[in-house]
Every structure is written in C-alpha cells, then in structure tokens.
C-alpha cells in the first residue's frame, strides 16, 4: 500500500491572548503524517508540542487562542474551517488522543469499564450488551490483567500503568485513523513505560493506525517512531528519520537534547544543559574511577550517619466484616548503612516500598518493627518533641513541588517559615537576607522572593523546594522522585545543583527514582528494591555493569537508550 499523507499541517501559526496582549507561540510550522506511520514530536515544555496537537483536534481554548495562519488537512478536509458539530464526528472516531495524566482524564466517580462503554454507545450502533463485550475485548487487547475486575474498578483502585491502558482502550475504541499520544508515559516506571511503548507499536500494526507520539525524551521517542520532528520555542528546528536525527543531528538544540541525559557509560562531573550547548560552554571532564575510589575510601572509613536494621512496615487490610484481616508488608526486613557525604540511590518500580521506607526514616509513618539509628540513636523510639528536633537534620525534597508549596504564600516567606520554627536567624531581617542568599545559590535571583508559586516553571519550583529543604541546614536530604517530572535539560540543571550543594555543604542524600540512568549518575551505592525487600545492593557502577538479579536486569534493559 503506498504511503499517502493522511494529515498535512501547513504554515500553521497560533496566537494566545493574555491581558489584552496577543502573542504568537507557534510560528509557521509545516509537517505531515503518513498512513500507517509513527511520527515522534520531541521538545521541552513550552516548545509548542501539545498546543500543535490540540489544534489538530480542535481543542484549543476558544477565548484565549486562535489559529492566525495556515491549514490542517485531514483526508482533504481543512480542520481549521469546520464547525464544532462536524468536529465531534471526527474527534474520537477518526482522530483520538491519549493524555499525559490519566488520573485527571478519567472520571473518578465512574467505573473504568463504564467510561469506555459510554464512548462506544455514543459513536457506534452497538447495543449495551455488545458494547460491554467490546469493552472487555479492548481491555484484553491493551493487556489489562483481569479485564472483568478492571471493568468494575474505579480509577483509584488500579495502578498508574493500568489507568494508562484504560485510556488507550478508550482512545482506540472507535478504531481511529490517527492516535495522538501526548506524553503518555512520563510518570510511569521504566518497565511499564517499555510495556506501553510496545503495546502502542503492536496496536498500530494491528489496526493500521497512524500515531503522533509526543515526548520531551528523545531516547524514548526514538524507540517507537519512524520519523521525528524536533520543536523549540514554537518552531520545528529539525525533522528526519530516527537514524538521521540520532546519528547526524544538525541543529544545536537536537544535539543538546541527546547529550543532556546522563550517560550510562561515562560519569561526567557536570551534565551539559541546553544553555551550555547554545553558548558552546560544555564541560566534558569526567569523574575517573580513581577519583571515585578515593572519595569512597574517605567516606566509608567513618561511622555511618544512618543505619537501618531489620526494618518492617506492615499494613492491615480488611475487605469485609467477617473476613480475616490481611497483612501486607510494604517494607520487609530491610538493612543498610548510609555514610556522611554519600549519595545512596534507591531504585525500583512503583509499589516496591521506596517511599514507604523514606517515610519511615523521616518518622512520617512509624515502622512496624526494626530500628533506625541516626548518629547512633534509635529514632523510632523518640518522643514527639524529639522528632520535631530531628526534622532539622533530615529533610525531604518532594516529587511535586507545586503541591508542597502553599499557593497563597510568596516563596520567600515559604522558605523562611521552617527557619523560624527551628530558630535559624535572630530576626526576620536576618532570615530574609539568608533566603535571598539561598535563592542565588539555587540559581534564582532576589526578585523571586515576593512571587507566588504559580508564577514559576516546574524547574524553578523544584529549585524553591530545594532552597526550602536546605534553609534549615540539614545533614541528610531525601530526594523522592524530585526530577522525574522535569524536562531533560531542567533535570540536568537540578542534578548539577544537587551535586554542587553536596560538595559545598557536605550534604548526604538518599536519592529515590524509578529512572535507573539518573540514579546511576547520582549515586555512590545503589539499592534495588522489589516488593518491599532489597533485591541487590552494591556500588552503582558495579550493579549497572554486572547486575546479579533478573529484576535488576529487567530494569536496566527497560532504560530508553536511543540508537
């Protein structure tokens, strides 16, 4: 079958209006999608990827945005010229979309099966009984375990990967010609991400669909796409085959995207950022194995800062009045030591017990049994007053900085709050000066002191979270998935910042992530967790180069590596 252009975007420009000022954010872009093709669109937040795809579906917010020039031709019909009634026939039937965040895209008050059933009843002539059978078939097709259970389950009762599969089932229900997948795997574990990628490729081949796959991760896009477009600041800066983009990128931004991700082969002292590439100031110096040995010899010769001994955390679930309570061990017989100045990596899939272990160390959730010795003292036996004092020494940087900041308090005050509680600085003025200095240290400037959280980008908010965590001069910082939602380049900036702070202030980190490439780059020792237990523990490089357990091998194999 000859490859024809199913979709053609020609000279498309889109403007948004804010405070009566119109600003063009998509600048004269042109591209096409062939029949039976997977087209990858890659670029960072704000590059225009999602806005372009929303324009294809006619979902741009009407009050604040408009297509100023250009056309979007689907099967010869210009989608910029049709009315909303005609669009309703195309949307879902011919062109469907999988959104980034399945939890906010699914209706929390409706069982998953009913949500797919609704679409089939609306767009097809199937009876209710036939639509239910078709929904269960779709659930099998997207490889959902126990389709009957998922059909009756509410979104909060299934895992993130399963929710994303329900979304895919919903999107392919009416056998669309084009499927737009907007960051469909960003918040998922590497293994689940790999499964979703393979699933989309398989569905595309079976259903003869064309897919537009959008992501900020070029390595990931290369694993699924036939061709790739690279977007930067509302422009398409490069497009070509996967081989061409990876082996001989022409635009400096594409080169930067490829190189900003931590390498799995060499450990650079600093990760290059997009800005470094644009200014041609990249530092390629590496951490030699001799440097690393020397550093480890120094830190491991002292007494441990933290020692976790036979730690267990169990939860008891009761499913009915007369049923026997079930005990679930989220953390099961965990033992390890953490030394001052060390970064201990903690990696594993969702539900493996990483965050439960972190909460037990932070005394946010008491362990069921076992000991946690901090500077030789068992912190599981401390009084509430003593735990409050401990908060000064052990801090956390959360995954979602926006949710951990009060939207009604300017960020300067939010950073000053814990300082006041722990008696840092003798006056408000002194604390303010310390905060202004901290803002500079985390790469923000003094003008940000009086701004509110919503005025910042994700990367800037993460820096504010870091500033707040270090404001009370802790010794140990737990970074819980603190870079997983960030663009590749912003991630590089934050990882560099964490390493600089460690060097300057002698911090000790527990670095939790499901991204093994990032954990390997940051860590001295690495712990691989699986179902509440430690699967493997060793030097980060040793585990990556010579994994002993099949589970670890599976995690390493799932890392998107590009070409």
Could you give a quick summary of the protein structure above?
The chain is an alpha/beta fold and 563 residues long. It contains 22 helices and 20 strands.
Key features of this structure:
563 residues; alpha/beta; six-stranded mixed beta sheet; single chain
Q: What would you say this structure looks like, in words?
A:
Helices cover 37% and strands 25% of the residues. It is globular, with a radius of gyration of 25 Å. A hairpin with a 2-residue loop joins strand 1 and strand 2 (21-34). It has 22 helices and 20 strands. The protein has 563 residues and is of the alpha/beta class. The strands form four sheets. Strands 6-7-8-3-9-10 form a six-stranded mixed β-sheet, sandwiched between helices. A six-stranded mixed β-sheet has the order 16-17-18-13-19-20, with helices on both faces. Strands 2-1-4-5 form a four-stranded antiparallel β-sheet, with helices on one face.
Helix content: 25-40%
Low-pLDDT segments: none
DSSP summary, beta strand count: 20
Alpha-beta content class: alpha/beta
User: Which strand order do you get reading across the main beta sheet?
Assistant: 6-7-8-3-9-10
The largest sheet, given as strand count, sense and whether it forms a barrel, is: 6 strands, mixed
Distance between the termini: 28 Å
The tally of helices reads 22
**Overall morphology:** globular
How large a portion of the residues is in β-strands, by DSSP E?
15-25%
Radius of gyration: 25 Å
User: What integer is the average pLDDT?
Assistant: 88
């Amino acid at each position: 079958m000859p490859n024809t252009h199913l979709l053609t975007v020609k000279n498309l420009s889109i403007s948004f209006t804010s405070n009566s000022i119109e600003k063009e954010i998509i600048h004269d872009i042109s591209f096409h999608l062939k029949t039976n093709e997977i087209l990858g669109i890659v670029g960072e937040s704000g590059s225009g990827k999602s806005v372009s795809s929303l324009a294809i579906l006619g979902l741009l917010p009407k009050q604040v945005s408009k297509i100023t020039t250009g056309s979007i031709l689907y099967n010869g019909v210009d989608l910029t010229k049709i009315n909303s009634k005609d669009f309703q026939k195309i949307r879902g039937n011919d062109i469907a979309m999988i959104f980034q965040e399945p939890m906010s895209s699914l209706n929390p008050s409706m069982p998953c099966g009913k949500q797919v059933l609704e679409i089939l009843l609306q767009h097809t002539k199937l009876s209710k009984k036939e639509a239910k059978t078709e929904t269960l078939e779709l659930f099998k097709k997207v490889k959902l375990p126990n389709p009957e259970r998922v059909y009756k389950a509410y979104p909060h009762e299934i895992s993130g990967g399963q929710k994303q599969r329900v979304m895919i089932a919903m999107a392919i229900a009416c056998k669309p010609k084009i499927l737009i997948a907007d960051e469909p795997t960003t918040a998922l574990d590497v293994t689940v991400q790999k499964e979703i990628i393979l699933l989309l490729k398989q569905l595309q081949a079976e259903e003869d669909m064309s897919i537009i796959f959008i992501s900020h991760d070029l390595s990931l896009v290369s694993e699924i796409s036939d061709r790739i477009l690279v977007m930067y600041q509302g422009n398409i800066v490069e497009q070509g085959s996967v081989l061409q983009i990876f082996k001989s990128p022409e635009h400096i931004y594409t080169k930067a995207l490829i190189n900003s991700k931590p390498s799995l082969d060499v450990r650079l002292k600093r990760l290059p950022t997009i800005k470094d590439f644009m200014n041609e100031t990249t530092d390629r110096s590496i951490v030699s194995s001799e440097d690393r040995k020397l550093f480890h010899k120094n830190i491991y010769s002292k007494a441990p800062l933290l020692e976790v001994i036979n730690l267990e955390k169990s939860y008891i679930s009761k499913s009915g009045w007369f049923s026997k309570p079930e005990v679930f061990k989220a953390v099961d017989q965990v033992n390890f030591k953490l030394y001052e100045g060390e970064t201990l990596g903690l990696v594993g899939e969702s539900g493996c017990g990483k965050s439960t272990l972190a909460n037990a160390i932070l005394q946010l959730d008491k362990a069921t049994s076992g000991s946690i010795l901090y500077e030789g003292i068992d912190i599981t036996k401390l009084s509430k007053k003593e735990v409050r004092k401990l908060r000064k020494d052990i801090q956390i940087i959360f995954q979602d900085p926006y949710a951990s900041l009060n939207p009604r308090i300017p960020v300067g005050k939010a950073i000053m709050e814990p300082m006041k509680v722990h008696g840092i600085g003798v006056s408000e003025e002194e604390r303010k000066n310390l905060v202004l200095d901290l803002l500079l240290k985390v790469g923000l400037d003094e003008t940000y002191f009086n701004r509110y959280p919503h005025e910042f980008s994700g990367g800037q908010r993460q820096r504010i979270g870091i500033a707040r965590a270090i404001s009370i001069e802790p010794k140990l910082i737990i970074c819980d998935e603190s870079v997983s939602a960030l663009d590749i380049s912003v991630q590089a900036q934050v990882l560099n910042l964490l390493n600089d702070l460690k060097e300057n202030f002698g911090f000790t980190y527990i670095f939790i992530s499901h991204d093994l490439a990032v954990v390997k780059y940051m860590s001295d020792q690495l712990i691989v967790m699986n179902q509440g237990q430690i699967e493997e523990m060793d030097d980060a490089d040793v585990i990556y180069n010579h994994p002993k357990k099949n589970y670890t091998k599976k995690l390493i194999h799932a890392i998107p590596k590009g070409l």
